[in-house]
Amino acid sequence: MTADAGSLPTKAAPPPAATVKARHSLGARLAEGVSGGLLRVFLIVVGLFWLVPTIGLLLASLRAPEDIAANGWWNVFTEPSQLTFGAYRRLLENEDITSSLLNTVYITVPATVLVVVIGSLAGYAFAWMEFPGRDWWFLGVVGLLVVPVQVALIPIAELFGEIGIFGSIVGAVVFHVGFGLPFAVFLLRNFFAEIPRELLEAARLDGAGELRLFVRVVMPLAAPAIASLAIFQFLWVWNDMLVALIFTDAGSQPITVALQTQVRQFGNNIDVLAPGAFISMVVPLAVFFAFQRQFVSGVMAGAVK
Hints:
This protein has helices spanning 17-23, 26-34, 37-61, 65-70, 86-93, 95-128, 134-143, 149-163, 169-192, 197-205, 210-221, 223-238, 242-247, 255-265, 270-290, 292-300. By secondary structure, it is an all-alpha fold.
């Protein structure tokens, strides 16, 4: 028997010519090009353009003062004999710069470590420990995030003067820790709260106390978030100038204040300022690239379930 002609399946009609033309329109081709190699080339060009000041500062720090006064740093590409490490040798002989570099380390490292340690403990307590007024205390910590640094400069300077730590490294460290903790507690508490409760309960059933649970279970899981926090805090303290200008004196000033003082006193000593500025800039860059993977993991934590 033959099937009825009306019951035979019919082929789908080809798409209209207008639809096919729209798929291959100029906008579609541009979108495909941008999402591919063209976008990568553009990003590379932007990255190289962003690096031009850094490269210029590096090359300027490797030139003699007379060459710097004569022409721009780009002339080293035609006259590579201008490159020399004499400016860095003179920098190491400048006691103000070398001592300020050490002061920067003395301020930045403790301020970063204390913020990470105290912020981690407080964040874990707010996330998983029960105590009276926990939520209200956390709201108070979050409220401190909106307090500008400039508002607290004079009152805290007077307080530090009364207790004898104004103008010292200790005073600068305490100020940075105090203003770094609200963000640290807020960030880590939210990260710790995402840890499965079952994992913590299983560790408690195995006999782990709160401190051991924090060190052995929570801290390894929170390594990306802690690394991100440490990078943020390190960069903020290392590059700070406002707090350092107020809370440090000539014997405790960091590199940012020392370079500003050199500019004010000796406006033409670019042979000292250029290598000093490059060292001040390259250290945080090295820290960022060293922990880049942990930083990206911490920023993306919680974005994908």
